[in-house]
Amino acid sequence: KLKNAKQIEPRLRFLQDKDIRSNVYIKYVDYVYTYGFKRHKKNVLLQFQYGIFLQYYRKNWIKAQSVFKLARSSNPSIPLKFILYCKAKEGGGQGGQRGSELSSINFLSKMAQAEEFYQAAK
């Protein structure tokens, strides 16, 4: 029974144990989260926890970013709003790739420097 949205995530913590984690259990947890959304449509904390599950267990970063975006639009608390902002910046690589904005800027500057060295060496 999923009467309280705050009780869903603690009941699914068995995935943290690598010995128990399997593809069947991951699909089961995905089902429990989607069923929880049907009962608690606007629960921001549940949306955030589902996004974390998608990101780290399902390895579906694109869907996780869309869930984080939905959570940001659902009027979260101030600490959760900050965490969602950081998650948005963390997943802001080009083409939906994983990575931070800072590392992509750093990569571009190093690439430009490498091209300059290459041109100078010719």
Low-confidence stretches: none
Helix content, binned percent? 55-70%
Secondary-structure element order, N to C: HHHHHH
Number of E-type strands: 0
Please tally the helical runs, counting DSSP H or I stretches of 4 or more residues.
Answer: 6
Q: Describe the main β-sheet briefly.
A: none
The radius of gyration computed from the alpha-carbon positions, rounded to a whole number of angstroms, is: 19 Å
User: Which structural class fits the helix and strand makeup?
Assistant: mainly alpha
Shape: elongated
N- and C-termini, Cα separation: 70 Å
Beta-strand residue percentage: under 5%
Q: Quick check: average pLDDT?
A: 81
Q: Could you characterize what this model shows?
A:
The protein is an all-alpha fold. Helices cover 66% and strands 0% of the residues. It has a domain of 71 residues. The longest helix has 21 residues.
Concise description?
By secondary structure, this protein is mainly alpha-helical. Helices cover 66% and strands 0% of the residues. The protein has helices at residues 8-11, 23-39, 44-56, 61-72, 78-90, 101-121.
